[in-house]
Amino acid sequence: MTKQLLILGGGTGGVIVANRLRRMDPELAITMIEPSPVHTYQPGLLFVPFGKGTVEEFQRPLERQLHSGVKLLQTKVESVDINAHTVATTSGDTLRYDVLVVATGATLLPEETDGLLGEGWGKNAFTFYDPAGSAALAKAMDSFASGRLVVNVIDMPIKCPVAPLEFSFLAEAFFTDRHVRDQVDITYVTPLDSAFTKPVASARLGRLMEERGIKVIPSFNTGQVDESGNRLISYDGQEVHYDLLVSVPLHGGAPYVSNSPGLGDEINFIPTDEATLQSLVAPEVFVIGDAAGLSVSKAGSVAHFEGEVITKNILAFLAGKPLPARFDGHANCFIETGHRKALLIDFNTSIEPLPGHFPGPFGLPLLKESWLNHLGKLAFETMYWHALLPGISIPLIGPEMPTRGKGSLAVTEL
Amino acid sequence: MAAKLVSGVEVELNSEGFFANPKEWSEEMIPELAKAEGIDPVTERHLEVIRVMRHEYETKGSGPSVRALAKVSNVPIKELYQLFPKGPAKQAARIAGIPKPIGCI
Q1: Residues ≥6 apart with Cβ < 8 Å to A150
Q2: Among A136, A276, B44, B86, which is most exposed with the fewest C-beta within 10 angstroms?
Q3: Nearest by Cα to A84 from A262, A322, A254, A317
Q4: Does B55 contact chain A (CB < 8 Å)?
Q5: How far apart are CA B105 and CA B99, in angstroms?
Q6: CA-nearest residue of chain A to B66?
Q7: For A295, which of B78, B81, B104 is closest by C-beta distance?
Q8: Is A370 helix (H, G, I), strand (E, B) or coil?
Q9: Do B105 and A155 touch (CB under 8 A)?
Q10: B105/A contact by beta carbon, under 8 A
Q11: Whether the Cβ atoms of residue A363 and residue A357 lie closer than 8 Å to each other
Q12: DSSP secondary structure string for all residues of A147-210
């Protein structure tokens, strides 16, 4: 009998799994459930507030990103029954699965922070983490010429942990180009005890923030946003005033997870084996990307690297064989630092981002600002639509983190 | 790593003050560990949170983040900060004798 593979979510992870499996096993019946007709290139949302592109330019029809033979159901998931192996949709259908791939990512939860959705939301308080917010922020940035811009991460985990730092660097360059940099104070408010969690990268990024005159307020746990008084208030009573707030709201898993007994953890992420990507809640359930309750970064590059591992393991599982592939937590990202420069970091669960070159000794410079990396970031979008989503392996950039080309520190396990 | 005497028992703590071997911990150590965190006296409410922290670690293999701690303990985040002003997850984890809760990057 034909095996039924059901994929929940049409983001980066879902599309990669669908397209890879379609090619690896044409016999498999693959169905994807995703309510949105468009697929968004999420890294693009970082650039929209600075007038570099519109949301529409970063969106394409989802159906066209999927290989023919992948069935797309445009509806929402109501709940998953992990014992009956079924998924109920909000349109009233019940679908049975042999393997379920959870790829529904992370959901923004601004309503969970007291006051964030208050009177200032959409006026002088925004997020660039969703398409509508990013577009609205573009207008506010365009008319902002003096005062204090605060970038606030409320709590981890968040998607693309470097994006708020990039936003700060790009804002610095944006106001410099507009000759109002001396009128604008940029302050970065984070719950972490420094700019970033990984020590070597954090030191480098922290120095760069200082050089660019961006203030960092660490260890600030936002408990409330007072939008009539334009201030952030921490749980221990500290306050930060803002004129324009760029907030990164709390993230959780998809809402249907809380209607699905046994599927998720307290904040709706799915407990997952970090090496095999099989869930810890049921053997037929696999998890890719941000939906997983893992300590790896919630980033598109991670979903990409996971794609190769998870698809091998799913086919082995369906064949009743032991799961052969192992994920090492590999992530890499270009960090835009403004002024047409970027820096590149490459790391995994046990080896932190280090200086050197990627993917080998003559590649792009790591942890160092360069124009080449900025070009790399821009070129990446083309690669995303034409290689990454279709599930074509990119030469030299595989799931296992390369160590050649990195400094001697590269073998220092943390 | 440093050895430290807590309630007359030698325990191994890492550079951030978390237990290297959670098995070396016992409930009798709570008041002394709490005092080192500036928490004195330890109330019943503190104990509730510390026990949840320990239980989560023992059943799931890692301590919860502040948000997850609030959900499993039914103690609101605001109150968690009143109980453990320097960071509920970290402080309660040190007192509960478990490793640092896995932060997400």
Answers
A1: A187, A188, A189, A232, A240, A242, A244, A245, A246
A2: B44
A3: A262
A4: no
A5: 17
A6: A155
A7: B104
A8: strand
A9: no
A10: yes
A11: yes
A12: EEEEEEE-SS--BSTTHHHHHHHHHHHHHHHTT-GGGEEEEEE-SSSSSSSSHHHHHHHHHHHH
Six-digit token pair at A52? 């570099």
Strand boundaries in A41-164, DSSP class E: 59-61, 70-73, 77-81, 86-89, 94-96, 99-102, 107-108, 125-126, 147-153
| Pick from B64, B78, B102: CB nearest A295 | B102
CATH of domain A4-106+253-318: 3.50.50.60
Q: What is the ipTM of this complex?
A: 0.81
| pLDDT at B59 exceeding the cut of 50 | yes
CA A278 and chain centroid, separation: 20
Q: What is the mean pLDDT of chain A?
A: 93
Residue A111 has pLDDT above 70, yes or no: yes
A4-106+253-318 and A110-250 agree in CATH topology: yes
Nearest to A267 among B67, B77, B102 (CB): B67
What is the model's pLDDT at position A328?
Answer: 92
A161·B67 Cβ contact <8 A:
no
Residue A189 Ramachandran class (φ > 0 left, ψ -120 to 50 alpha, else beta) = beta
Chain A residues in contact with B72 by the CB 8 A cut-off are 266
Closest CB to A266 among B68, B78, B85: B68
Mutation pick from A111, A266, A330 vs chain B, by most beta carbons of B within 10 Å, is A266
The CATH code for residues B26-95 is: 1.10.10.370
Q: Do the Cβ atoms of A156 and B104 come within 8 Å?
A: yes
| Domain A110-250 -> CATH class | alpha beta
pLDDT band at residue A407 under the 50/70/90 scheme: low
Q: Is 70 exceeded by the pLDDT of residue A154?
A: yes
Structural domain boundaries of chain A? 4-106+253-318, 110-250, 331-411
Taking CA atoms, what residue in B is nearest to A193? B87
> Catalytic positions of B, please?
104
* Smallest Cα distance from A297 to chain B, Å: 5
Question: CA-to-CA distance for A133 and A113, rounded, in angstroms?
Answer: 17
Which residue ranges make up each domain of chain B? 26-95
pLDDT at residue B103 in the model: 57
pLDDT of B61: 84
Please give the order of strands across the beta sheet that includes A222-226.
Answer: A222-226, A231-234, A239-241
Confidence of residue B32 (pLDDT cuts 50, 70, 90): very high
Q: Which two tokens stand for residue A253?
A: 């898993």
Instruction: For residue A347, give the chain B residue with the closest CA.
Output: B105
Alpha-carbon distances, residue B80 vs A22, A284, B67 (angstroms): 49, 37, 10
A304 contact partners, CB below 8 Å, separation of at least 6: A12, A16, A388
Q: What is the largest CA-CA distance in chain B?
A: 37
Contact B65 A156 (CB under 8 A): yes
pLDDT of residue A414: 30
